[in-house]
């Protein structure tokens, strides 16, 4: 037998390589602890040729533990809980290499390449089984939280959340399931879990701008929000304003946008008075120089407008549609299309219809500009469709707005022509006037 197994062979008075079926029922708890202790040895997987036999034996032992927990109604006593948490901690908790956090030194092209090609954990053959074991352990009906909370404590949970920065999407997926179950089972730890998640978001937005698990953490939080009681606690509102909304700022928004938008929408549905503040927050950090993010913002605006109340909508409709007006005339066709697609939403059309006296004068000039000069045929077709909707909404006001726009356009053209003529006259005069010998010329 190899030194690894000699060193850890007999724990709790029983040989760990024995099968559970080969020992009496009274000894199975001791055998379980013995096998857990044997699995506390961690191997180096960066060199596949090292400890091949030992790695396979450990993997087989982990599978035995997982099978035993899955198929037997095991009563988790305190020694079992302690040994299980110790084994999981030793195998899972580790510090990621520094190159996981060097995005500021990378070019945008390198960053995009790294996002498309996730790094897979070399030790996954063992880690996957440990994660499966931990999930079975946490969800076991025989696990008493009064005892388990001593070991699944703040330190344990904090390290679980740190692991969300893993570059391996398989690991983050396992962590998502485990943290969600811990949140559901250990009510005493819920405020701490939310605080840890807030801290991750703060560091991501204001310090690092690099974290691999933001989407997964937001997905967990999205399900948490649905369980919030009404009215919302002040703690939850603070989290919303200080942790969630600032997540719209980073350039990597597209990676976690769907999960973030879901969380925001859930909050707005719970507390409708948040809607106008959310829209104004989006307008304040609107990505006017990033067309991809601009299209994403328009998508989130649509989701919020689907659940906004009329009174909240009226608070923000002028600044909002002033921004939408700019998006409609964008030369980036995807931004223009996304803005015009808002009129495909019946709820939004209804909001506009009830406030068309204010909104039409803002929007119609943008539609006329597109109709006259936009380069993209799809945008042009959408523009004409939207103009038709507004005409059906209020033909008189639409015609009036179009006339006003054309009058302003004529005035603007006259001013531009007059300015051109003045400059042409000055250029002609300058070309005919000879320079005096002592005239200083400044360049």
From TrEMBL:
InterPro entries: ARM-like, ARM-type_fold, PP2A_B56. Signal peptide: none annotated. GO terms for biological process: signal transduction. GO terms for molecular function: protein phosphatase regulator activity. SUPFAM superfamilies: ARM repeat (SSF48371). GO terms for cellular component: protein phosphatase type 2A complex. It holds the Pfam family B56. Belongs to the phosphatase 2A regulatory subunit. PANTHER family: SERINE/THREONINE PROTEIN PHOSPHATASE 2A PP2A REGULATORY SUBUNIT B, SERINE_THREONINE PROTEIN PHOSPHATASE 2A 57 KDA REGULATORY SUBUNIT B' KAPPA ISOFORM. The B regulatory subunit might modulate substrate selectivity and catalytic activity, and also might direct the localization of the catalytic enzyme to a particular subcellular compartment. This is Serine/threonine protein phosphatase 2A regulatory subunit.
């Amino acid at each position: 037998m190899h030194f690894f197994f000699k060193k850890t062979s007999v724990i709790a008075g029983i040989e760990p390589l024995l099968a559970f079926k080969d020992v009496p029922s009274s000894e199975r708890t001791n055998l379980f602890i013995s096998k857990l202790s044997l699995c506390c040895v961690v191997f180096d997987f960066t060199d596949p040729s090292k400890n091949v036999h030992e790695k396979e034996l450990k993997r087989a032992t982990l599978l035995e533990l997982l099978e035993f927990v899955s198929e037997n109604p095991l009563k988790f006593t305190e020694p079992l809980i302690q040994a299980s948490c110790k084994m999981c901690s030793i195998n899972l908790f580790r510090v990621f290499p520094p190159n996981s956090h060097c995005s500021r030194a990378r070019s945008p092209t390198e960053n995009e390449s790294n996002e498309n090609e996730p790094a897979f954990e070399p030790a996954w053959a063992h880690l996957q089984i440990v994660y499966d074991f931990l999930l079975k352990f946490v969800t076991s009906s025989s696990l008493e939280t009064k005892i388990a909370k001593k070991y699944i404590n703040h330190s344990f949970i904090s390290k679980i959340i740190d692991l969300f920065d893993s570059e391996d999407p398989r690991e983050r997926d396992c962590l998502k399931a485990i943290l969600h179950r811990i949140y559901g089972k250990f009510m005493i730890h819920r405020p701490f879990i939310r605080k840890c998640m807030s801290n991750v978001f703060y560091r991501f937005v204001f310090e690092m701008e690099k974290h691999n698990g933001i989407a997964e953490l937001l997905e967990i939080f999205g399900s948490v929000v649905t369980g919030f009681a009404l009215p919302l606690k002040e703690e939850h509102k603070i989290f919303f304003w200080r942790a969630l909304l600032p997540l719209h700022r980073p350039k990597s928004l597209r990676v976690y946008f769907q999960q973030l938008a879901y969380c925001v929408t859930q909050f707005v549905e719970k507390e409708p008075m948040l809607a106008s503040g959310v829209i104004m927050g989006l307008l304040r950090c609107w990505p006017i120089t990033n067309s991809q993010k601009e299209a994403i913002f328009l998508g989130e605006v649509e989701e919020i407008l689907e659940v906004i109340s009329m009174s909240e909508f009226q608070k923000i409709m002028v600044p909002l549609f002033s921004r939408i007006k700019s998006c409609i005339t964008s030369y980036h066709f995807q931004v223009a299309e996304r803005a015009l697609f808002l009129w495909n939403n019946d709820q939004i059309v209804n909001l506009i219809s009830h406030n068309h006296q204010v909104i039409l004068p803002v929007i119609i000039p943008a539609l006329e500009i597109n109709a006259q000069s936009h380069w993209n045929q799809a945008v042009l077709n959408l523009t004409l469709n939207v103009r038709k909707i507004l005409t059906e909404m209020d033909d008189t006001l639409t015609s009036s707005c179009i006339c006003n726009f054309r009058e302003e356009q004529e005035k603007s053209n006259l001013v531009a022509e007059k300015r051109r003529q003045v400059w042409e006259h000055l250029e002609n005069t300058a070309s005919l006037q000879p320079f005096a010998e002592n005239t200083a010329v400044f360049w």
